[in-house]
Specification:
OB fold (Dihydrolipoamide Acetyltransferase, E2P); five-stranded mixed β-barrel; nine-stranded mixed sheet; binds 5'-deoxyadenosine; 490 residues; 14 helices; binds iron/sulfur cluster; pyruvate-formate lyase- activating enzyme; disordered N terminus; globular; 24 strands; alpha/beta
Length: 490
């Protein structure tokens, strides 16, 4: 999942205007109509910012929906806001430091505007709980990821002069019937959250503590959401979960038999419409079945792209990480993908400098990267997180500069591999879903091929975002394909 993203959004009465700020989308603004036509406003203004993974983006759309129902209109200007909510990430220490920095900035505003309410939502709220109120005196509201329905009530409490905290984790909450207010609205691509929480307990990871036990959402509500998105003009959905391969619907009965597994859910969503592209994230190497791969292969509209985090290329490190697979098992899953879908793109997550990682173990990660040739990777230095298995069992003993040097080597290996992979598509026709105007040129459209590679080509009369086109690629940068329009695909 793409981490370290952030957005805020601002809504005039009946419109949502949002700002996306991350490495890839710096400074873009999108407008979205109020899907219900007219939304009552109370004159109160909300600034909602989201940090971290796609799941947080998706959760912010639930929060926005709940608060729009309470009459909030939104702004991206903290000076104008009555309520500022930060939907936070706790995955690495630097994610939390960024949020502390933002709170420092808000403190200066609150000095001038004492009635400003500041709330912390999401994983950092869940991790620090009441402690956050002690540490960050300006925070009025602390709300964990399973307590968003309680927001109106908690905000009322703050307005009555109290501080408010709800960090209860749930075994059932999936927000299944709340229609998300789409914030990342290029009007073409949208996220659908299919499950919450994680039961895996990877030893480095704080997520099981901040997002609680794994639970799957009713498949009917997922399919309905996909249908509604298609009818509203969207042409791509990304099904989100911490480990989508362990999606299981048991008809609301936790002890019952599995009625729908992930492969079957994927099939149901793919059947919504052949022109609705389906993506998903994140897959887990220990759980990804051939059934999922065959389902992908059967449906042209399920994109040929799998995010399969490896974390390390060494079996002993994987054991210490409690990942539940070895290097050999992982490479077997890669072989299965290549066998069943030879054109499928593969991306990964890698951590360098995990507890006790030796130079040889690190070399195994480099050799695995060389063997797999990833299309894309998110790469991190290990960051010890309180309460995790690794924090309790192992010493964080790889010096910071060694972690950094290894990360640099991993990044260099990935840059080489990505450049090679992108070149493979040059000289062929690609089916591209147009997402909007290119970031670099008003005269060009940008979209993606099924492998998730960005394709840029000159705009043509009559084409618009959401159209599928055939593009002949003639060149590339390291991660972007350049092409010419060939035909519209109906
Ligand atoms: N330190 C560094 N990276 C981490 N990740 C998760 N926890 C940590 C941590 N403590 C990375 C993993 C995961 C991705 C979402 O974030 O690579 O797959
Ligand atoms: Fe964290 Fe592992 Fe769950 Fe992913 S699968 S969220 S890394 S515990």
């Amino acid at each position: 999942m793409a981490y370290l993203c952030r957005y805020s959004f601002s809504k005039q009465p009946n419109t949502v205007e949002e700002k996306i700020i991350d490495e890839s989308r710096q400074g873009e603004y999108f407008m979205a109509p109020d899907p219900s036509g007219v939304r009552p406003t109370t004159g109160r203004k909300l600034l909602l910012e989201s940090y971290g993974c796609q799941m947080n983006f998706s959760d912010s759309e639930i929060v926005a929906s709940i608060l729009a129902g309470e009459g909030y209109s939104t702004t991206r200007d903290p000076e104008e806001a009555d309520l500022v909510l930060l939907n936070t990430c706790a995955i690495r220490d630097n994610a939390e430091q960024r949020i502390r920095g933002r709170l420092d900035y808000l403190r200066s505003i609150k000095r001038r505007k004492p009635h400003l309410t500041v709330g912390v939502l999401g994983c950092m709220a869940e991790r620090l709980r009441e402690k956050l109120l002690e540490e960050e005196k300006l925070v009025d509201l602390v709300v964990g990821p399973d307590a968003y329905r309680d927001l109106p009530n908690l905000i009322n409490r703050v307005e009555d002069g109290q501080k408010a905290v709800n960090v209860l984790l749930s075994r059932e909450e999936t927000y299944a019937e709340i229609a998300p207010l789409r914030l990342d609205t290029n009007g073409v691509t949208a996220f659908i959250s299919i499950m919450r929480g994680c039961d895996n307990m990877c030893s480095f990871c704080v997520v099981p503590f901040t997002r609680g036990r794994e639970r799957s959402r009713d498949p009917e509500s997922i399919v309905r959401e996909a249908q509604q998105l298609f009818e509203a003009g969207y042409r791509e959905v990304t099904l989100l979960g911490q480990n989508v391969d362990s999606y299981k619907w048991k008809g609301g009965n936790q002890d019952g038999d599995i009625l729908v597994n992930f492969a079957q859910l994927l099939e149901k969503v793919a059947r919504v419409h052949p022109r609705l592209r389906v993506r998903f994230s994140t897959s887990h190497p220990k759980d990804m079945t051939d059934e999922v791969l065959h389902t992908m292969a059967r449906h042209d509209n399920i994109c040929k792209y799998i995010h399969l985090p490896v974390q390390s290329g060494n079996s002993d490190v994987l054991k210490r990480m409690n990942r539940g697979y070895s290097r050999g098992w992982y490479l077997d899953r890669i072989a299965a993908i290549r066998r069943i879908m030879p054109t499928c793109a593969i991306s990964t997550d890698i951590i360098t400098g995990f507890c006790g990682e030796t130079e040889e173990e690190h070399q195994d990660t480099l050799s695995l990267m060389n063997e797999v040739q990833y299309d894309m990777a998110f790469m991190f230095k290990y960051s010890e997180r309180p309460k995790t298995l690794a924090e309790r069992k192992f010493e964080d003993d790889v010096p910071e500069e060694v972690k950094g040097r290894r990360l640099q080597q991993v990044i260099e290996a990935q840059m080489k591999s990505a450049a090679q992979r992108t070149k493979l598509y040059v000289g062929y026709d690609q089916e591209v879903l147009i997402e909007g105007t290119s970031k670099k040129s008003q005269e060009h459209f940008q979209g993606r091929n099924t492998q998730n590679v960005v394709v840029v080509f000159p705009k043509q009369e009559g084409l618009k975002p959401g159209d599928y086109v055939r593009v002949h690629t003639y060149g590339c940068t390291s991660v972007t394909l350049l092409g010419e329009y060939v035909a519209t695909v109906s």
